[in-house]
C-alpha cells in the first residue's frame, strides 16, 4: 500500500533552554492511503501537538514529516501555503465557518482561492453536498444551522479540494450524540466508499471506535496501537476502553 503520511523520529520542545518541555519524544508512525486512523491520549499526552505539526500549524524541533513524497518540515512561504491549500483538508471542533458567507460560499471559498472555474465549483459542491446530505442547507448562513449541519459543511469544505489527507481535530466535540453519530457514519462512508484518508484526534472512545486503527499517545510517545480488523464497532470500542484503562491517569481526559 502507498503511504500518505510518514512521521519519522520527530521531536517537539516548548519553552526556553532553562525550562524545556518535551511534547513529542522521538515519535514515528505511518498512515496508508485509504486508512481511517484515530489518535487518542490523555490531556497533555502530545496528541494535539502531533496533529499541529502534521497540519503545519506548528513546526517540529527535529525529525521529518512526509505527506506523499513531500517533506513538509522543509516547506516555507508560498510553497507551504500552496501545500496547505491543495494537499490537506482540515475539520475543526469549532467549525471555523465564516458567518457572513452561506454554506455554499464557505465550501466554494477553498476552490476560489485556487482559481477554479465557476462550473467546476458548482459540480464539485453538488457532489460533496449529496455525499454529506447538506444540499438543502447550501443557501443558509452558519447562524441558521444546527451544530451537526455546521460540522458537515466544514467537512465538505475540507473534502472539496480532494486533499491527500484529511485532518480532524475533535470533530464531534461540539456535537450532541445524534449529530456526532451521523457525522462519524459519514466519515466511514467517505473512507470506505470514496477512499478518503483520515487522521482524527479525539479524547472520546466512542468516536475513536469508528476508525480502522487507533494510536494511543502517552508522554509524547506511542504507547500502543490497535486495529479494528473484523471486529464489530462494539468489540473495537471495548478494546479501546481496555487500552485507555492501561494508560492510567485521569480517565475523564481520555474517555
Question: What is the CATH topology?
Answer: Rossmann fold
Q: What is the chain-wise order of helices and strands?
A: EEEHEEHEHHHEHEHEEHH
Straight-line distance between termini: 32 Å
Give the overall shape, derived from the CA principal axes: globular
In total, the number of domains comes to 1
| CATH H-tier superfamily | P-loop containing nucleotide triphosphate hydrolases
User: What is the strand content?
Assistant: 25-35%
Low-pLDDT regions: 250-255
CATH class: Alpha Beta
User: What's the main sheet like?
Assistant: 6 strands, mixed
Question: How many individual helices?
Answer: 9
Helix-strand makeup class? alpha/beta
For the largest beta sheet, what order do the strands appear in spatially? 6-7-8-3-9-10
Indicate the radius of gyration in whole angstroms: 18 Å
Corresponding CATH architecture: 3-Layer(aba) Sandwich
Could you tell me the number of beta strands?
10
Describe this structure in words.
This protein is an alpha/beta fold and 255 residues long. The protein has one domain: P-loop containing nucleotide triphosphate hydrolases (Rossmann fold), CATH 3.40.50. Helices cover 38% and strands 27% of the residues. It has helices at residues 47-54, 77-87, 103-112, 118-132, 147-159, 177-192, 205-208, 233-247, 251-254, and strands spanning 3-16, 19-32, 36-40, 62-67, 70-71, 88-92, 165-169, 198-201, 213-218, 221-227. The longest helix has 16 residues, at 177-192. The chain is globular.
Amino acid at each position: 500500500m502507498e503511504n500518505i503520511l510518514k512521521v519519522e523520529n520527530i521531536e517537539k520542545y516548548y519553552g526556553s533552554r532553562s525550562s524545556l518541555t518535551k511534547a513529542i519524544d522521538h515519535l514515528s508512525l505511518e498512515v496508508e492511503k485509504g486508512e481511517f486512523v484515530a489518535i487518542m491520549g490523555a490531556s497533555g499526552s502530545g496528541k494535539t501537538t502531533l496533529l499541529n505539526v502534521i497540519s503545519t500549524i506548528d513546526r517540529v524541533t527535529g525529525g521529518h514529516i512526509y505527506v506523499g513524497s513531500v517533506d513538509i518540515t522543509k516547506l516555507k512561504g508560498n510553497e507551504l501555503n500552496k501545500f496547505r491549500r491543495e494537499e490537506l483538508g482540515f475539520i475543526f471542533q469549532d467549525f471555523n465557518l465564516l458567518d457572513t458567507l452561506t454554506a455554499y460560499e464557505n465550501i466554494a471559498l477553498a476552490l476560489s482561492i485556487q482559481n477554479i472555474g465557476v462550473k467546476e465549483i458548482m459540480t464539485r459542491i453538488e457532489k460533496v453536498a449529496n455525499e454529506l446530505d447538506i444540499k438543502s442547507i447550501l443557501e443558509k448562513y452558519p447562524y441558521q444551522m444546527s451544530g451537526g449541519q455546521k460540522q458537515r459543511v466544514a467537512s465538505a469544505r475540507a473534502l472539496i479540494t480532494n486533499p491527500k489527507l484529511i485532518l480532524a481535530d475533535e470533530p464531534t466535540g461540539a456535537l450532541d450524540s445524534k449529530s456526532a453519530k451521523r457525522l462519524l457514519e459519514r466519515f466511514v462512508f467517505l473512507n470506505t466508499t470514496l477512499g478518503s484518508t483520515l487522521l482524527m484526534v479525539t479524547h472520546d472512545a466512542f468516536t475513536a471506535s469508528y476508525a480502522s486503527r487507533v494510536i494511543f499517545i502517552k508522554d509524547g510517545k506511542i504507547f500502543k496501537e490497535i486495529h479494528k480488523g473484523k471486529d464489530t464497532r462494539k468489540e473495537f470500542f471495548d478494546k479501546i476502553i481496555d487500552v485507555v484503562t492501561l494508560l492510567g491517569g485521569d480517565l475523564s481526559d481520555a474517555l
